[in-house]
């Protein structure tokens, strides 16, 4: 599995998404229903009214009996991808990637996976200036549209307010919603949006991005920390504060995961220095459930 920095170094999101996703296509979900599909499953005896095109004529010639070939049918669904484009997603890790860079790669790979399984894929980029929304589609031109929107997305300001987000939950539409965010919020606005989406759309997969230098706090000596959304700064001695910081971070991550699962979300923590395979597996697992 290529590292995120190598994928990013390609400077080509369509190619990077394909490289990241292709190893997972063999794990595409097939339903338990049987019918006309891609993978052979079993034979069953012919019954009046069955489609004669599915008869195995070679087997009939050998056995003088008529059997139909049954295959497992891929079940398609609607996948709605959400990207948090608030300013905190500009946080940069030691590998040079921002959370936004990682989010672009991840959602590009997920879009590639979903479309190659026949799913209708849509994307909404969440920013305070408004929603950039591409409705779910399954045609061949959808991936280039999604890639262009991801490549041109900027992270600015704070997470959108309820009025800006209202169109997302105005209509009921069954979908698997995949949200990529660092979950930095002022008053539970991300959580509120996901609760509403679960109520009107169904399943929610929450992919929580945390940078490696946030998780391990591998700064040294006197450092100045700046809030990317408010501009506030804090001067600390990193060596003295490391233990307290990591204890508080782990407590927050534990509380966040527990709260998400209590509300019915599938929650997955992602280190932005790690390959994308964990998130891709989680997506395929959720898609198959």
The CATH H-level superfamily of the largest domain is: von Willebrand factor, type A domain
CATH topology of the largest domain: Rossmann fold
Order of helices and strands: HHEEHEEHEEHHEHEHEEHEH
Q: Compute the CA-based radius of gyration.
A: 23 Å
Low-confidence stretches: 26-41
Count of the separate structural domains: 2
CATH classification class of the largest domain: Alpha Beta
**Distance N to C terminus:** 25 Å
Widest sheet: strand order?
6-5-4-7-8-11
Rounded average pLDDT: 87
Helix-strand category:
alpha/beta
What CATH architecture label of the largest domain applies?
3-Layer(aba) Sandwich
Give the tally of β-strands.
Answer: 11
Q: How much helicity do the residues have?
A: 25-40%
Task: Describe how the helices and strands are arranged.
Blueprint: H1 4-9, H2 13-21, E1 34-35, E2 39-45, H3 57-63, E3 67-72, E4 78-84, H4 99-115, E5 120-127, E6 130-137, H5 142-151, H6 162-165, E7 176-181, H7 189-201, E8 204-210, H8 212-215, E9 222-226, E10 233-237, H9 238-262, E11 266-271, H10 277-288
Parallel strand pairs: 4-5, 4-7, 7-8, 8-11
Antiparallel strand pairs: 1-3, 2-3, 5-6, 9-10
Helix pairs in contact: 2-4, 4-5
Description of the molecule:
There is one protein chain. The chain has 289 residues and is an alpha/beta fold. The protein has 2 domains: 173 residues, 3-Layer(aba) Sandwich (Rossmann fold); 39 residues, no CATH class. The strands form 3 sheets. Strands 6-5-4-7-8-11 form a 6-stranded mixed beta sheet, sandwiched between helices. The protein has a 3-stranded antiparallel beta sheet with strand order 1-3-2, with helices on one face. A two-stranded antiparallel ribbon has the order 9-10. Helix 2 crosses helix 4 and helix 4 runs antiparallel to helix 5. The longest helix has 25 residues. The radius of gyration is 23 Å and the shape is elongated. About 6% of the residues have low confidence.
